[in-house]
Predict the 3D structure of the following.
Amino acid sequence: MIFHYSERSKDLQEKLQSFMEETVYPNESVYVQQLREGTDRWSIPAVIEEMKAKAKEAGLWNLFLPDSEWGGGLTNLDYAPLCEIMGRSSIAPEVFNCAAPDTGNMEVLERYGTDEQKEQWLKPLLEGKIRSCFSMTEPEVASSDATNMEATITPDGDEYIVNGRKWWSSGAGDPRCKVAIVMGKSNPDAPKHAQHSMILVPLDAPGVRVERMLPVFGYDDAPHGHAEITYDRVRVPKSHIIWGEGKGFAIAQGRLGPGRIHHCMRLIGAAERALELMKNRVRKRVAFGKPLADQGVIREWIADSRIEIEQARLLTLKAASMMDTAGNKVAKKEIAMIKVVAPNMALSVIDRAIQAYGGGGVSEDFPLAFMWAHARTLRLADGPDEVHRRAIAKLELSDPVRETSTG
Amino acid sequence: MIFHYSERSKDLQEKLQSFMEETVYPNESVYVQQLREGTDRWSIPAVIEEMKAKAKEAGLWNLFLPDSEWGGGLTNLDYAPLCEIMGRSSIAPEVFNCAAPDTGNMEVLERYGTDEQKEQWLKPLLEGKIRSCFSMTEPEVASSDATNMEATITPDGDEYIVNGRKWWSSGAGDPRCKVAIVMGKSNPDAPKHAQHSMILVPLDAPGVRVERMLPVFGYDDAPHGHAEITYDRVRVPKSHIIWGEGKGFAIAQGRLGPGRIHHCMRLIGAAERALELMKNRVRKRVAFGKPLADQGVIREWIADSRIEIEQARLLTLKAASMMDTAGNKVAKKEIAMIKVVAPNMALSVIDRAIQAYGGGGVSEDFPLAFMWAHARTLRLADGPDEVHRRAIAKLELSDPVRETSTG
Amino acid sequence: MIFHYSERSKDLQEKLQSFMEETVYPNESVYVQQLREGTDRWSIPAVIEEMKAKAKEAGLWNLFLPDSEWGGGLTNLDYAPLCEIMGRSSIAPEVFNCAAPDTGNMEVLERYGTDEQKEQWLKPLLEGKIRSCFSMTEPEVASSDATNMEATITPDGDEYIVNGRKWWSSGAGDPRCKVAIVMGKSNPDAPKHAQHSMILVPLDAPGVRVERMLPVFGYDDAPHGHAEITYDRVRVPKSHIIWGEGKGFAIAQGRLGPGRIHHCMRLIGAAERALELMKNRVRKRVAFGKPLADQGVIREWIADSRIEIEQARLLTLKAASMMDTAGNKVAKKEIAMIKVVAPNMALSVIDRAIQAYGGGGVSEDFPLAFMWAHARTLRLADGPDEVHRRAIAKLELSDPVRETSTG
Amino acid sequence: MIFHYSERSKDLQEKLQSFMEETVYPNESVYVQQLREGTDRWSIPAVIEEMKAKAKEAGLWNLFLPDSEWGGGLTNLDYAPLCEIMGRSSIAPEVFNCAAPDTGNMEVLERYGTDEQKEQWLKPLLEGKIRSCFSMTEPEVASSDATNMEATITPDGDEYIVNGRKWWSSGAGDPRCKVAIVMGKSNPDAPKHAQHSMILVPLDAPGVRVERMLPVFGYDDAPHGHAEITYDRVRVPKSHIIWGEGKGFAIAQGRLGPGRIHHCMRLIGAAERALELMKNRVRKRVAFGKPLADQGVIREWIADSRIEIEQARLLTLKAASMMDTAGNKVAKKEIAMIKVVAPNMALSVIDRAIQAYGGGGVSEDFPLAFMWAHARTLRLADGPDEVHRRAIAKLELSDPVRETSTG
């Protein structure tokens, strides 16, 4: 491999892979079973906490966090193959305390939080004792343009009053989810990108109301879920603001870079697993007297899937490496590129696998349909493809015209 | 329009459209509400029977059935625009007693059934009093090659014993579903395509066991559902066989032609509605200071969607017209073509609409995600794309080599 | 077939097909040979005039022209299959005096020309004695927006002075080409779409200078060619204006509708021939021990090609039929749609055939590479895809919002 | 950048870029002019030898050759960015003596040639005094399966007799081209991949007859050209065999790896230039009142082009790096992948640029149409996409089934 991983990363890759094989994959069905047998869809299967304890003990914990005091202290490049491995199973990221949106929230607190905020929220998050959600997008406005946001964070004496309706607050269905980072307009008269703030809102604060859990292509994604939440005159102390008034976009910029690339890394893992499943299937399944693998277009699917995965992986690694060496700002074109590439790649690889599995592919018998639905949301979450493409083109067109070329 | 519809069809189109606008669309949310409030997911919302009564009264009933004694007496071409209109709403086909798999089953009974079978099953089906399912595909074998089928129908005295495991028996979750048409091997020593039979199995016969309802991308499709059913030494009288032993494939051929094209017609309606929804959205939703309709790639999406829908519709109409004038057998290439085209077209149109709706698109707030999941199954149901493409190519390659061409 | 052709059209289809087989296909290589052996690339191979004489005698002449006094008197729908057949060979359209740009020019003269203009130019064109070109697009401006046009047609006493630089004046390389229809700005102060006129300019008028012949992917398209022409203070009598000052866009609208659809019909013929060639090839060519037809993805290519051709054909026929029954104006969305569909369809079908032919496919041994290059120009000529897509979307978005839909 | 280039490579990149800007780009039009004014299409424009002299002097010579005694001594990874830069101009590779097929031929001689062969052919090739061609594919058989080859190399006393018809012997039109490496069957009774040999045939040997120059789309690619050559009982001394009898496939394997990746590197340069041209154009060209860059789908094209180029580049670099570190054999999947990716990527990027240029795009006014035609041949040359995809799938399917996955 041409990207050089540190010895530490290589060692962790190996450990993680073993852990997946010994502990995570065999428990996927246990998890589903326990979820099904729970009192309702919103209780946590016991197996998840058992696996978390094991992972922590094995040192496979908080690997996402670059800062070495709290977390894994790995570079983005070193973390990439680990995050990819976790992405192979939808229950894995939580096992290693590396699941969205907690990872993004922890990074925000680690970077911009006060000591008090760290003590109150970051610590239990890092320990895997509580979970958190992120309330940014709103149902009434196009969130592709974040300046559309209508929620408000209004100072009132020692407090802020938070008002607004947010949706896609993923993870809020989890009974362990205790806090939301809410973004809203605090300074309506400031320049466009200094009008918004982020604030910590405990989910048990009066006025916080989970209206409903949003399904994704029929999946409730229990026990985490995607909540639509009304913040109705919710009062929180002024100390709950993160970094300061008007810093919302600045934090969002910082938060979204790593968040986006983590999604991409996991999508590569998911696509890799889908390809593996497809290969297994077509070698075994027989139609018209020979294995599917020997028929028609199946080998094209395998080849194209490998090609697409490999290219997406390389672009992700490049973006990760640039974030490490040149910073998230310089890497913004690469981050935008991979944010377009990874979900579309995963969707096409998974879709081929679904097709190879026939009816089983769209059902719950294989993880494919769920993986597809999840990947589909990532063409929208953290900015739709269109917005990222536009950002790439803008950067391209800001290059000086080269004189050596005709035209 | 260049395809000429009869006056009767034109008149029905108008009536149907009004009925949809006055009765069906406004009741879509009522249906969902009643389903949600039912004792479980598997009770029938009252509104559906109310609408059925109205539709019957309005003469919008059984329009799918070509034979005029029982049904609409319309040609496939005349039925096409009606079926398309019904396809705009997932609850509509049942309202007009034109829903799969009942339509296919009724056609089978009408064409191949004995008088006794017609009296017992066809009559209540035509009256909308009961529903039915179709047990063909099996989880253990590749159903793209139907000769793989392992279920058996074994004569034993005055009875047949039915054994096997079938899945995707759609509609079996419906409490009104009373009978299955089951396909299985009855004559293992006959030539390859004369080994199988179809037989009527009452769902309350001893040995019939619904193992589970299969989800489609997270949707349970309640209250109809897709059942996996075990037929465990189920005994039925010999009179339950349809047409005769060994006629399974012959019936399947006849059944699948119209069934496939009906799916395609409905998919065009679904795509048309998705495009309409997308157009509504992009005119109203504002980002970066102007409606989405005035930005980037949105107009390409609308144009491409219109182009794809229109081409799929024309091909469907051509296939329908050929079935009417030259017969289903001659039309088999066209049927295979449209079976490939329509689901893929619908998926791409609906996917663009989802993208235009952002987070709402993947949720339950709009019918798009559900429509997408349903359309996705139709790249598999009634034969995967690959099998149809192969059939088309085979027919193409059986043309004589033309001497006028070099090469 | 669901589109009903008149008996006359059916009879002509049969005659035309025989003529192609007996006369045109066998002479394709003769034509190439004679062109190669000519004194230069710009002399007309004798075989073309021989074939023209035969076609005229056989009544296969001027079939494109709807008006029955001068031409075939066929509807667009009736002409469509004839034009498609001609499109199978690049030398065929001229043989039947149905080649662009003469057809469009003749239609303009027939509809808008004075008796004098008809006598002088239309008559010899209809007789196939002279040829003509059309000078519209200009190298210096984006011609996708025709109002960019900079050429001028300035009244001066009894004359107009024509000034400007035009390119893609196809056919101007032909020694028989005697006249150009030139479009330019005559009334700069009029409303935007009434500023331009069309005027007849004899190619031997002083000041007309063919600067060069433009290659298309290396092809000179001799002996017709695509000329870049300078009109340098060219004086023509006032009687040479067509219809009247300021009528340029009105004429262009009328001219382009049929012209566009004729291109599409021919492209379908070209694609059909490419598919035929591909089928011939893959049945005969052996690799890895079996014919290409039995390998990998080849059958998918054939099936997809058939599907794409058939859909494009149906859309063309629908557009033709609408032009006949509702008029070119009402049919403008359908014309725009087919103008996008046909070239892209042809390019993909031909490209697959090229791939199946290997090195031969890109060479002159088969007509494929030339067909591809020609089809590629038609994603640009008469408006680039983008402009047509935009027109379609605009028409779609001008529909009233339907109240029956949520969103 | 995450791939680490040596200081030497970085230094050469800079020098090469300056040389391109100062010497190559400005001489592109001079080259065309001199070619046009030559006595025929097959004389070498003087400017090319002038540039070669300069390049040699500047140390920008034979950079492709890994071995440091003769050539640049660069790794594949270090050479990649240099080769990409050369790929930006179709006349550049020859300027630096890095043009196909000489590079492949020189590598063959360097690796497998005798001292005598090196003295006679390799030396003048390395000095840029002569050129060479490669006679492998044949018109009569599918060359995608090289074992189809029908040419023979038959021992006869001290000589071999070479018989066969080869085509796509690129470069044979060049008056400086003195020798062909010919592949043919020498040992018909040996195992399948040991039946063929490669042999050096001087082009002036009796019996060597250039039948014609094959056009690519309409391009003759003069003064190099693609020759169809008959080898009619050509006698060469036994010492002309390369490596030994039966080594043909072994050499081909070695030859094709680097040759393929060099093509890919150059294609990336070509695509990069096409994107640059497109960006220049859309910033300047105005339609409907604003630059093309601000309209419709143009920014999507730019973003997608950037994404596709970047992914292809990374995959090329990975393949290059694997060749350097693990060897060409281990890298065969990556080489196959990039061989599929690079031409298709280049075609799509260049095609978008053509579309943005309108009529100019398909003409000779910009290098785009020529670049496209050349890139199109590379979906066929050195193995068609289909064969490479099949090879990738075969490698994928030879992986052991992973037990951790269901399915």
